[in-house]
Design a protein that fits this description.
alpha+beta; Hypothetical Oxidoreductase Yiak, Chain: A, domain 1; Ribosomal Protein S8, Chain: A, domain 1; 2 domains; 7-stranded mixed sheet; 4-stranded mixed sheet; globular; binds nicotinamide-adenine-dinucleotide
Length: about 375
């Protein structure tokens, strides 16, 4: 089977071919092979799980950020403060896929030694799909909670407001289940993640009504108020539009979005999304993570048994739609991964074109791109 298939206005790219192309693109853009592979695996992994917003659609933007010096290749976290059960680390504007992994591994190590740990990461490049970090902690047998903000990204309006005051600030938690797939709740606190608006703008899945507010205060599903008028040849910039994304769940989601700024922005020292009377702050992710070892909380397998039993209880609820299924957090992503491992990653032709163009822009020839894909793009 060819690794790229064009069907029904979409390109379907096999995950391994996409990883080869992405790795080669980031290597040429200035990353070490190890880092390029890390970024490529995580971005393709997001698409495999159905989170196209945090997947390979980001390749052109990440490459652009290297060129502009916004996100730096091959950085290492530095310790700002530390004791047995906590640390504050600086990501030094390195790729989130690298400095995020380092910060999470530090938290895992501390929690394995002491039963619990809190690690604050400041000044990280884009941390991508936050579920990656909860999955990493769950693979080590740990429960984890991750609270994230996006400093310098003013794209979300608070409940009842029009003007941008915050970011999409995700909340994520992971519950390990020995021998089974962990339970992963991973969600933006905006109605939709910015990348989902980008996917819709690029001809992909439409947004739910009320995902955005226009500059005049009207709720809408149209992604354009976020980006404004497209400039020919320029990549869509969510900072340029007159409107904003909305927070999810009315005032309650807005409250959770606010809390992410307190935890991931203020408490880590990374800084909140913005402040009155200041110019735009430098873009970064802040993340406050809490790691807990269930083995420290209960000597026997009480936790795992109780979790499994509750999952069954929840899933036994009668579905509202005939033939429907009640899902627990993370289950949708698992279903999607099984499907897309077979079908390939579906991308709008526009997104696929942008990705191939990014490979060309960093210096790959048509022949190299064909060889990486094992097919004509
Ligand atoms: P989403 O709305 O698709 O899913 C949110 C959660 O709901 C998931 O845990 C999912 O398993 C669960 N879910 C989905 N459908 C369900 C159903 N039918 N029944 C029960 N549970 C269901 O996710 P999102 O809010 O669009 O977030 C997308 C991604 O964006 C996340 O991976 C997030 O980490 C990422 N993100 C990252 C940043 C960043 O700055 N790095 C910012 C915002 C969002």
């Amino acid at each position: 089977m060819s690794s790229v298939r064009h069907e029904g206005g979409e390109a379907f790219v096999a995950a391994d071919a996409m990883q080869r192309l992405a790795t080669a693109t980031f290597e040429k853009a200035g990353c070490s092979t190890a880092e390029a592979e890390r970024i490529a695996t995580r971005l393709s992994g997001a698409n495999l799980r159905g989170h196209d917003s945090h997947g390979v659609i980001r390749i052109p933007r990440y490459v652009q950020w290297i060129v502009e010096g916004k996100q730096l290749p091959d950085q290492t976290i530095t310790l700002e403060s530390e004791n047995e059960v906590m640390a504050i680390v600086d990501g030094n504007f390195g790729f989130g896929q690298t400095v995020g992994e380092q910060a999470v591994d530090l938290g895992i190590k501390k929690a394995k030694n002491h039963g619990i740990a809190v690690v604050g990461l400041k000044n990280a490049g884009h941390l991508g799909r936050i579920g990656d970090w909860a999955e990493r902690a769950a693979a080590a047998g740990l429960v984890s909670i991750h609270m994230v903000n996006v400093r310098g990204s003013l794209i979300v309006a608070p409940f009842g407001g029009i003007d941008r005051r915050g970011s999409t600030s995700p909340f994520c938690a992971g519950i390990p289940l020995p021998g089974e797939t962990p339970i992963i709740l991973d969600m933006a606190t905006s109605t939709v993640a910015e990348g989902k608006a980008l996917v819709a703008l690029r001809g992909g899945k439409p947004l739910p009504e009320g995902s955005l507010v226009t500059g005049d205060g009207e709720l809408t599903a149209d992604p354009r108020p976020l980006y404004g008028d497209e400039e020919p040849g320029a990549y869509p910039d969510p900072n340029k539009g007159p409107g904003a994304l909305t927070t999810f769940g009315l005032h309650k989601g807005s409250g959770l979005n606010f809390l992410m700024e307190m935890m991931a922005g203020a408490l880590t020292g990374s800084g909140t999304a913005g402040a009155l009377g200041e110019d735009t702050r430098r873009f970064c992710n802040g993340m406050l993570s809490i790691y807990m070892d269930p083995a420290t909380f209960h000597a026997d397998d009480y936790f795992a048994a109780e979790v499994k039993s509750y999952v069954e209880f929840v899933k036994s609820s009668r579905p509202t739609e005939a033939g429907g299924e009640v899902l627990v957090p993370g289950e949708k992503e698992q279903h999607m991964m099984a499907k897309r491992t077979k079908s390939g990653l579906p991308l709008s032709e526009e997104t696929w074109g942008d990705i191939v163009e990014a490979a060309r822009a960093v210096g790959h020839s048509e022949a190299e791109i064909e060889a990486l894909l094992g097919a004509k793009p």
